[in-house]
């Protein structure tokens, strides 16, 4: 979880009265978390907002997971690009081998055509 979502959950928990937040008035007065002066309206609002905050956290975690997956896909694409470049370099550096392979494929195709005509 990021600091923003963690802090949001802390603030919402503080508004619901379930907290030990040093920034809250009740803490500074030494009342403890069970005697917080947050009113019922604020607690109802927090009860509605906490599930939204949890949903925000879940969606942010999903986005972070997708970002990691995207990084992986980009890494694989870069690796594939490097391999294609290496293959092109090999083809350019070995034209005789490429010509030999091309001729072998032509012969295989010619044999296949001849066998097809013989049937």
- Which H/E pattern describes the elements? HHHH
Number of strands: 0
Number of helical elements: 4
Distance between the termini: 69 Å
**What amount of the residues lies in strands?**
under 5%
Radius of gyration: 33 Å
Low-confidence stretches: none
Shape: rod-shaped
The largest sheet, given as strand count, sense and whether it forms a barrel, is: none
pLDDT averaged residue by residue: 73
- Helix proportion of residues, in percent? over 70%
Which class of secondary structure composition applies to the elements?
A: mainly alpha
Number of domains: 1
Spell out the key features of this protein.
119 residues; mainly alpha; 4 helices; 80% helix; rod-shaped
Brief overview:
With 119 residues, this protein is mostly helical. 80% of the residues lie in helices and 0% in strands.
Fold and architecture overview:
This protein is an all-alpha fold and 119 residues long. It has one domain (3-118). It is built from 4 helices and no strands. The protein starts with a helix and ends with a helix.
